[in-house]
Amino acid sequence: MKFTLFSALALGFLFGASSATPRPPASPSELDLIAGQHVIYSYNTSDPPEELLRLTRAGLVGGVLLYDLHINAGTPAKMGELLAAYRASPARRLLRSKYGRDTSLLIMTNQEGGTIFKPIKDYGPDQTAREVGAAANPRAAGTQAGKEASQALKAYNINVNLAPVMGVYRKPGNFLDFYGRSYGTTAKQVIDAAVPFVKAQRERDILVTIKHFPGLGAAEVEQNTDLAPVTLNVPLKELRTVDTATFAAAIRSGVDMVMPSWAIYPAVDDMPAGLSEKWMKRELRGRFGFRGVTITEAMEAGSIVPYGDIKARAKLAFKAGNDLILASQLNVTEGVEIRQTLVDAVKSGEINRRDFDEATRRIVELRSRAWN
């Protein structure tokens, strides 16, 4: 996902955003509370709406995604209100009782760098990923960019960065390079700049997400998974030696979260990577040994519309191996619907309870390390 306000609004228009948000249950069950921790919400006003605050106080929200729309002088205080709402919620008390850890709400944005993919405009990094990767000393440039991103996030009470992009772009002007979002045309170039970017943020207690596994570097400029299905016919050897090599290096170095791509890679599976157990479980968890939290791209993206309504997609995503489901349509109702879907699927046995509990454990461990 591109995480721009334009794409969010476009997705809401194309795929039916609604503003009617159900009230939370009067007395949420334990399963309601835990399912809520698996869902990341967003909203269509500059400040968090009362519906979202109410759901957070009730313990039914795992986190929020912020776009450019939400970043203003009042954002730090407004995020403080959300954090306080979660701290007073029964979900926090439940997780502390069950897992022995204190947890914070996840507040995330996409502070990659440059001018387009940088919601917090008054902070860095000012350089795009491509400029960082092309620096005389990409490691130093990556470290500096990570420091600047951390400063930006902390200034706005944000604890998760949905960056960096780990894709290796194949040619100038393609999908990742069009806005300078890739660090280079070789795995080494990307690793040399991106891994220091990750480390610098983690050293400052920012939770970092690498994306879009296994990589979008081969996508043409028009192959936008936000809008339509995308198939990348990359040979398996190339996927191994180029695309996933960057993710493997970041995972070895240490990373908190991984976001999969919604593209299809026929060399491994005929399902989008984020809906594929082969990619999420066999490759990411198995081959690369990732033990952290996985988070989907936008659940309303055009690339996965062929796989059913939002309920069907959410279940497919969770069963494939995604711990957090991103309801990023600027629509609080979408998050509510996904939470209710997870509850129903666990009750019916469609989602394996052991898998659900393991995913919850990973989320709790992650959130126990959030700086705010």
List keywords for this structure.
single chain, 372 residues, alpha/beta, eight-stranded parallel β-barrel, globular
Question: Any overview of this molecule?
Answer:
By secondary structure, the chain is an alpha/beta fold. It is built from 13 helices and 8 strands. The chain has an 8-stranded parallel beta barrel, surrounded by 6 helices. Helix 3 packs parallel to helix 4. The longest helix is centred in the middle third of the chain and has 18 residues, at 138-155. It is globular. The two termini are 26 Å apart. The model is unreliable at 9-19 (pLDDT under 50).
Radius of gyration: 19 Å
% residues in beta strands: 5-15%
Order of helices and strands: HHEHEHHEHHEHEHEHEHEHH
Globally, the shape reads globular
Number of helices: 13
Biggest sheet strand order reads 1-2-3-4-5-6-7-8
Quaternary organisation of the protein chains:
single chain
User: Distance between the terminal alpha carbons, to the nearest Å?
Assistant: 26 Å
Main beta sheet: strand number and arrangement?
8 strands, parallel, barrel
**Uncertain segments of ≥5 residues (pLDDT<50)?**
9-19
Helix content: 40-55%
Mean pLDDT: 94
- Beta strands, count: 8
Q: By helix and strand content, what is the structural category? A: alpha/beta
